[in-house]
Automatic annotation (TrEMBL):
InterPro entries: DUF3243, Uncharacterised_YmfJ, YmfJ/YflH_sf. Pfam families: DUF3243. It comes from Peribacillus deserti. This is DUF3243 domain-containing protein.
Amino acid sequence: MSVLENWEEWKSFLGNRLNHAENEGMDQSVVSDMAYQIGGYLAKQVDPKNEQERVLADLWSVASEDEKHAIANMMVKLVENNGTQSK
């Protein structure tokens, strides 16, 4: 089963990667830009595997560039404390 198939596992996966990036000293603006790029990739290349991903894909498809950055930033905030690694 892919981490994309379960919303909670996906959030945990993203949270772990975010914590790792922050522990390695990655700047918040770089994290934000990467989240935006990942959102774009997922929207174009990956079929949503659950209802939450479908909502995100639908929102992404109608969003302006600024709104896409806002969605990406909100996803970062959502998963900030979801990882299993401590800061």
